[in-house]
Design a protein that fits this description.
about 120 residues, 3 strands, about 55% helix, 6 helices, 3-stranded antiparallel sheet, mainly alpha, Four Helix Bundle (Hemerythrin (Met), subunit A), globular, single chain
Length: about 120
């Protein structure tokens, strides 16, 4: 499942055209936060890109925060469950970031890493 959730093909292609290669690290989240949000010009693509951004955020958390793991709610909604038991709704965070620019992906990551 983690492999499937980490693909984020639309996000990787979109930011790749802006010269950013995503390497599944916290620093790549900071780099994403600094990109001009050109994706907001395409209202049809925007929710898909936000979904991918959330899945990418989740991928970075799962790969770098000890005890973090993917969990899928009964309705099929993926979240990241931290070792503390707290769940991070990464898809919602990604959509908020794509549409509004906040919270920054790196901020959500930092909060998860501290938990």
């Amino acid at each position: 499942m983690a492999e499937l959730l980490s693909e984020c093909a639309l996000l990787r292609a979109t930011v790749g055209r802006q010269g950013l290669e995503l390497d599944d690290t916290p620093s790549s989240l900071e780099a994403l936060d600094q990109l001009p949000p050109r994706w907001r010009d395409d209202p049809e693509e925007l929710p898909w890109l936000g979904n991918d951004a959330g899945l990418y955020l989740g991928t970075v958390i799962v790969r770098t925060v000890r005890g973090a793991a993917w969990h899928v709610w009964p309705g099929g909604h993926p979240v990241v469950r931290l070792a503390s038991g707290r769940e991070v709704n990464v898809v919602e965070a990604g959509l908020d970031w794509a549409v509004h620019g906040s919270p920054e992906l790196s901020q959500v990551y930092a909060e998860a890493a501290e938990a």
